[in-house]
Amino acid sequence: MPKPKKPVIEYRHYSLPIDFPVLLLSGERWKISDIKSEHLHFHNHMEIGICYSDGGVMEIKGECVPFRAGDVTFLPRYLPHTTYSSPNNASRWAYLFFSPEELFQHALKMPHGNMEPNLRTIRADRCVLHKDQYPKVYTLASSIVEEIQQQSPFYRESAYGLLMSLYIELLRIHAGDELGSNPERKPEQAREQELQGRQPDLVISPALEFITRSYMMPVTIDELAELCHLSTTHFRRKFHEIMGTTPLDFLNSTRVEEACKRLKSTDASVLSISEQVGFRSISSFNRCFARLMGESPKAWRTGTHVEAPSAKASILAFTGWV
């Protein structure tokens, strides 16, 4: 019997607003087709979705999990998935994207490595939370969307508090599964047998995690390949296949995007910011910044920008679909 064809996995990048780093995507545009995509995809930020109408299927880690109106979906970054509605339907959604480390690093006293569930232990069926079983999760998620949409006085403070409460609820759900507190959880050995032959974890996720958290540190391609337990040649090929760019270009675009945030939110000098985000010289920073952003760091700083720009948009092809 021939081996099943490996799924194509796409990377989709979303840039967060600088002043309040939570991105809301909602409205009539955000409807999911009943046509199943041939590709899985993953994001650079955590995704929380709310299904407002109809139903369908979400594929996560090789498992098909049904969803219906009132469900809340919880997808850590770098978790490949796809969503499609039931035949002849187009389910309507709202989506929230954010980075737990960026939002809650000072409020939640836990190591950065524990800020998100472990992708290897996360259960696909726990990524779709039914309203009747988790009413608090639905109430919090829908309240966050409402606050951001209406933008009443102090809406950011309110949305921040609600989002932290929601995130803690989600962490509790997944932490309970990891500790085996769920009586319905299958024994690990049985679960391993059940998942044999299904889609593997994203092979380059250790490198993506390192770049996301330690972009300011010097790192070689050999070291990134070693994190993924791949040869350097295989790592380069696999990284480009998934991300559409080289590891070095992705690393530099991550550094430039972080520099953009600091240029707008601090008074630090361009030289200081270039060093903070990991560039070894101001000349290489200026060249890289201008290539990706179309202008110098100084010119960009004095411009009017309310969102973190997509520095990666110059080197990666993105779609607008979740």
Name its key features.
single chain, 322 residues, alpha+beta, 6-stranded antiparallel sheet, 11 helices, 11 strands, globular, disordered C terminus
Describe this structure in words.
This protein is of the alpha+beta class and 322 residues long. The chain has helices at residues 100-104, 135-150, 155-178, 188-195, 205-214, 221-227, 232-243, 247-265, 270-276, 282-293, 297-302; strands at 8-12, 22-25, 31-32, 39-43, 46-51, 55-60, 63-68, 72-75, 81-85, 91-98, 128-129. Strands 2, 3, 5, 8, 10 and 11 form a six-stranded antiparallel β-sheet that branches. A three-stranded antiparallel β-sheet has the order 7-6-9, with no helix packed on it. Helix 6 (221-227) packs across helix 7 (232-243). Residues 181-199 and 310-322 have low confidence and may be disordered.
Question: TL;DR?
Answer:
The chain has 322 residues and is α+β, with helices and mostly antiparallel strands.
**Alpha-beta content class:** alpha+beta
Q: Tell me the β content.
A: 15-25%
Low-confidence stretches: 181-199, 310-322
Shape: globular
Write the layout of secondary structure elements.
Blueprint: E1 8-12, E2 22-25, E3 31-32, E4 39-43, E5 46-51, E6 55-60, E7 63-68, E8 72-75, E9 81-85, E10 91-98, H1 100-104, E11 128-129, H2 135-150, H3 155-178, H4 188-195, H5 205-214, H6 221-227, H7 232-243, H8 247-265, H9 270-276, H10 282-293, H11 297-302
Helix pairs in contact: 2-3, 6-7
